[in-house]
Amino acid sequence: MSLEALGVLNKPGHANFCMRCLYGLPSNMSDADAGRVGVGFYCLGALDIIGLLEGKSKATDRESWREWIWEQQISRIRLKARSSSSSSSAAERRTHKDSSNVDIDGVDDVGDDDSEQRIGGFRPGPFVQTSSEKSNATSIIIDSVDPDPPHLIMTYTALITLAILRDDFSRLDRRGLVALLRATQKEDGSFTAIPGQGEADIRMVYTAFVISSLLDDWRGVNIPRALDFVRKCMTYEGGFGQAPGNEAQGGPTYCALATLALAPPSFSTIAELSPLERRQAIRWLIHQQSEEEGGFSGRTEKNADACYSFWCGAALKILGVDEFVERRRHALFLDSCQFAVSGSGKGKERRLLGGIGKAGDAHPDPYHTYLALASLAIYSPVSGAHAREVEVEGVEETGEVDASWGLPRLDALINATEETARWARAHISGNMELLEIDEDKQDEMR
């Protein structure tokens, strides 16, 4: 048995597709417009991974994108009656301390008095804005539903996108971010997408942990409760569901494992999987890679989908067992997901256009384009220091791998290139020494 030769990774086509989506989504993607900041993250993240952000965009474009994202930063003063439950929660935070900048007692810094909270973060887009005023102007919400609230997932994507655009984060409301985390965490440890309302599941826990890690400030999170919620999401199969009792899926499993890995070292005894749990998680993830297709499925006995190449593949990377992924089969599947039209006539090859879909017969979208490229940045089929080839018994690999498949390293925990992740950690936390430390580590690796 032999594996067919890989084609080329259509970097220029994918870059053009992402640029088109930045200027306007086609009608079949109109539902994605409700999360416009997220669309920007996927498009600009893809351009960052393939190294064509500067080549395909002008400096004025990148500056306007930065300004637009900052216009989505929200500042809210929420006034509400103090309840006994909020008082007890505040008391719990005041008494909970940790040695690694995770003391949750900073009452004066973030406004622990629940009768008045100044909440920051980013909204999905300017959909409810009714005036020409800048959206980051402070407004007051009194015991009512905020019509234009900050969103936890969109806050995460906004921060990473600004790092991709190399913003200096001088306008970041760090205090407001900590308050946002406090306002979205529930009693069971989970987080809602927006303060006081909306769905709550493991995705929001992950974004809360990433934000806290980038800030190097954990005062907004009740860490033991959050970790307890994550642990309860593990299923008998070895994967994780979005909430306790839910079916195991690839996306929640990544979010769970990344959350546990991001937890401060002093909470390692709570966050660390037992040897049995670790084996179960590895087994479940490995079995999501299809023998036939080479891609990953998100649930047991489902078809492969390009997005799960990242969710499952990055989860295996976090567990330190990325050598179990069959890279060549994985790349062949994603090669087939590149949007193309069939050639006409005998011997005519397919013509690559741009963008990546969930499967070979699907139309492309920014979500699958980014996640497919992110997975290839972890599991490159190109031989090199970070791309070990895996020999599969009984399989003969044929043909050279085109250099176009070479991509920069990806930080699997933050979900950004390592260079972007370094920028984010240093500038969001305000600790510029982190850049120098990371550069020293890179020199040692070389």
TrEMBL record:
Presence of the UniProt keyword Transport in the record: no
Matches recorded under InterPro entries: PGGT1B-like, Prenyltrans, Terpenoid_cyclase/PrenylTrfase
Keywords, alphabetical: Metal-binding, Prenyltransferase, Repeat, Transferase, Zinc
Swiss-Prot/TrEMBL cofactor(s): Zn(2+)
Residue ranges occupied by any Prenyltransferase alpha-alpha toroid domain in the UniProt entry: 9-382
Biased composition (Basic and acidic residues): 91-100
Region (Disordered): 85-134
GO MF annotation, one: metal ion binding
Name assigned to this protein: Terpenoid cyclases prenyltransferase
Organism expressing this protein natively: Pyrrhoderma noxium
